């Protein structure tokens, strides 16, 4: 039996990206956004992705999000969604309020109109995961992209992980600044390195636990004949290797000693050369027993889809609710048999799915209750059955 599903039944965009004002209502498990390239389909998915901690599926800066018309940027933006789930109807809202002073403004978040500290509070009501074309080169790209991907996987099951990662990045910058000045009192470095060690171990432990759980779930559901091959997963990093057999406090003490000894080397390099900020997610093609990066483009695409589907199952298990899935232009590059397999798997997962595409024929195999919308610049309209 699938965990309870949360569904977005109403989505409202105000001065967001290409939309001055738009509203979409749907009770469907599957929502398809159809339109030409550049029509604004991905903007809708991005709006939904902002109902999670972090910067959304494009990782955009806040000043990139306001609506623009004739070169003039709107003052403020808002995304509001009504969710139907375990707690009944709940309204989540996020955005930037207009500010006549013109000063930089923080992103605001509200639940049923009441302010909350951050989007981490939304995790009680909805979990959102996504797959975009920009992720296609994940396995052959730089380690930083895989770390970012992994942190998003962790964030979907641990809403506080983003705050830890941000704190780790701040601590790294603080240490690097102190190392620039050879006259820095070593006691300042001791204090920063103590914080950096604690954060590094906490981030590494959260990543390691998510990878362990995800790998366990993949093993339990292994199917060598699946259209989406199963993946092998491992973390490559000194801290992660030590956490596999040592207590966290001992690993933290050891890393703090490494940082102290490495000060001259790191000062010369201008950065910290060892730590969780440099770890890599190693992904393999299970059925073929080879690194994912060695697979063909099609194999890597299928493997990535399989990994995202496995992650959706993990989120449902750990959060007690099926996640909302955002699949941006995913089906266009699948053959008909893989499309049908994907649609069947999504249906079995039980959560709400939002998909985009330019060709209506690519979605012909969807269930009859799937709802389709036409997207054109600045407009969203339901397509009658």
TrEMBL record:
Family annotation (PROSITE patterns): RECF_1 (PS00617)
One GO CC term, this protein: cytoplasm
Alphabetical keyword list: ATP-binding, Cytoplasm, DNA damage, DNA repair, DNA replication, DNA-binding, Nucleotide-binding, SOS response
Domain RecF/RecN/SMC N-terminal residues, every copy: 8-352
Residues given in the record as ATP binding sites: 35-42
Keyword Nucleotide-binding: yes
GO molecular function: ATP binding; single-stranded DNA binding
Keyword NADP: no
Pfam family, one: SMC_N
Domain of life: Bacteria
Matches recorded under InterPro entries: DNA-binding_RecF, DNA-binding_RecF_CS, P-loop_NTPase, RecF/RecN/SMC_N, RecF_2
Compartment(s) of residence: Cytoplasm
Protein's GO biological process: DNA replication; DNA synthesis involved in DNA repair; double-strand break repair; SOS response
Function as written in the Swiss-Prot or TrEMBL entry: The RecF protein is involved in DNA metabolism; it is required for DNA replication and normal SOS inducibility. RecF binds preferentially to single-stranded, linear DNA. It also seems to bind ATP.
NCBIfam families (UniProt xref): recf
Family membership noted in the UniProt record: Belongs to the RecF family.
HAMAP family per the UniProt record, alphabetical: RecF (MF_00365)
Name recorded for this polypeptide: DNA replication and repair protein RecF
Organism name: Ancylobacter defluvii
Gene symbol of the encoding locus: recF
């Amino acid at each position: 039996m699938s965990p309870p599903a949360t569904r977005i039944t109403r989505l409202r965009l105000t001065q967001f990206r290409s939309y001055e004002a738009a509203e979409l209502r749907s009770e469907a498990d599957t929502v398809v956004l159809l339109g030409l390239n550049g029509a604004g389909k991905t903007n809708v998915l991005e709006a939904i992705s902002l109902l999670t901690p972090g910067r959304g599926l494009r990782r955009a800066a806040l000043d990139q999000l306001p609506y623009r018309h004739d070169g003039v940027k709107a003052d403020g933006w808002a995304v509001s969604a009504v969710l139907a789930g375990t707690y009944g109807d709940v309204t989540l809202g996020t955005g930037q309020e207009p500010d006549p002073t013109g000063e930089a403004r923080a992103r605001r978040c509200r639940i049923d109109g009441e302010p909350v500290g951050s989007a981490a509070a939304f995790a009680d009501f909805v979990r959102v995961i996504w797959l975009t074309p920009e992720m296609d080169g994940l396995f052959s790209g730089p380690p930083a992209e895989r770390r970012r991907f992994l942190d998003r996987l962790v964030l979907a099951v641990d809403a506080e992980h983003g705050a830890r990662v941000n704190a780790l990045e701040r601590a790294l910058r603080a240490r690097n600044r102190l190392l620039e000045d050879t006259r820095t009192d070593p006691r300042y470095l001791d204090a920063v390195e103590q914080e950096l060690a604690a954060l590094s171990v906490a981030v590494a432990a959260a990543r390691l636990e998510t990878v362990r759980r995800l790998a366990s779930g993949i093993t339990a559901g292994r199917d060598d004949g699946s259209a989406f091959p199963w993946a092998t997963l491992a973390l490559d990093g000194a801290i992660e290797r030590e956490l596999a057999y040592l207590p966290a406090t001992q690993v933290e003490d050891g890393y703090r000693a490494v940082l102290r000894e490495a000060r001259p080397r790191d000062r010369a390099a201008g950065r910290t050369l060892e730590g969780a900020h440099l770890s890599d997610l190693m992904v393999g093609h299970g059925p073929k027993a080879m690194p994912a990066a060695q697979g063909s483009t099609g194999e890597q695409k299928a493997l990535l889809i399989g990994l995202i589907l496995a992650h959706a199952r993990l989120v449902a298990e750990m959060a007690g609710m099926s996640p909302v899935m955002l699949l941006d232009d995913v089906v266009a590059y699948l053959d008909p048999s893989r499309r049908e397999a994907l649609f069947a798997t999504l249906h079995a997962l039980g959560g709400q799915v939002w998909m985009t595409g330019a060709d209506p024929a690519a979605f012909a195999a969807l269930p009859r209750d799937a709802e389709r919308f036409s997207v054109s610049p600045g407009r969203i309209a339901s397509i009658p059955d």
